[in-house]
Amino acid sequence: MKALRITALSPDLSGCALVTTDRPDPRPGEALVRVGAVSLNFPDLLMTQGLYQLKPELPFTPGMDVAGEIVSAPADSGYAPRDAVVAGTRLGGMAEFVSVPASALRPIPGTLSFPAAAAYGAAYRTAWTALVELGGLKPGQWVLIHGATGGVGAAAVDLAKALGARVIATSGSPRKLERIAEVYAPDATLLAEGRFREGVADATGGVLADLVYDPVGGDVFDESTRCVAFGGKLLVVGFTSGRIPHVDVNIPLIKGFSIVGVRAGEYARRFPERGAAIGEHIDSMLAQGRLSPLIDRVLSLARWREGFSAMANRDLVGKVVFEPGA
């Protein structure tokens, strides 16, 4: 089979190559899946550089969210060959076949295509864990969503709107914000540059944001500490800006807000019942047509460099999805 292999860590993808290798041999309790589509997530890019908290032993194949069809599965798994499934794999998804625990499989919700099914997993789980599980989102609340044109940001805009929140979507690009406005119709859009607190105050009528969803960090986080309403929460999702910010603790004390760290995967591993419930909620909303994963482009796996480079250069609105068999 063809697979993307990382044989050396590097800042320029020079340690990555599409290779021909053996199909995985499923262990007891695992299913073999023919990968129809696999999405690119920011941790995949970070792992090629050795900058993510998960540091796999070299060589490895990235790919966290796959959709495809069963080739073989344990007799007691409830799955049979040709069943259409999604799975969260952490590693191994950017290949024509992947072996995953049968417990990690779920039927594809509704009538989603393989690319759409591959696009939602980690992004929407992160959004739900942050906004609902840890943020306690309620209908009518104001939610300031940074990085709204990236995968996890767009998912948060989509989910928050579907759950009845009032959303301010931000980005550093007016062109990208136009696309988000077209797809998800947030209540306001805002350029996240300089002193954007006044824009948040204007949009909310002065009440500021009940929740701030921040996968960006850096200067955006710094200014966001001025945008949280009293009693609100600043949800730390990541640091795509490249700078991990610091905050003097007197700021949340005086302003009466909480700073909450979000690790959706770890949350699901520590609280498996909650993790399963999150997946069920998201799958149900997708099956009902209440959520719409945003895909920027679908590429053959042979064009992996184009997808990774587009993510590294912030040249995306939504997700990159690869089709290994194309």
TrEMBL record:
<keyword id="KW-0560">Oxidoreductase</keyword>
<dbReference type="Pfam" id="PF08240">
    <property type="entry name" value="ADH_N"/>
</dbReference>
<dbReference type="InterPro" id="IPR051397">
    <property type="entry name" value="Zn-ADH-like_protein"/>
</dbReference>
<dbReference type="InterPro" id="IPR013154">
    <property type="entry name" value="ADH-like_N"/>
</dbReference>
<dbReference type="InterPro" id="IPR036291">
    <property type="entry name" value="NAD(P)-bd_dom_sf"/>
</dbReference>
<dbReference type="InterPro" id="IPR020843">
    <property type="entry name" value="ER"/>
</dbReference>
<protein>
    <submittedName>
        <fullName>NADPH:quinone oxidoreductase family protein</fullName>
        <ecNumber>1.-.-.-</ecNumber>
    </submittedName>
</protein>
<dbReference type="GO" id="GO:0016491">
    <property type="term" value="F:oxidoreductase activity"/>
</dbReference>
<dbReference type="Pfam" id="PF00107">
    <property type="entry name" value="ADH_zinc_N"/>
</dbReference>
<feature type="domain" description="Enoyl reductase (ER)">
    <location>
        <begin position="11"/>
        <end position="322"/>
    </location>
</feature>
<dbReference type="InterPro" id="IPR013149">
    <property type="entry name" value="ADH-like_C"/>
</dbReference>
<dbReference type="InterPro" id="IPR011032">
    <property type="entry name" value="GroES-like_sf"/>
</dbReference>
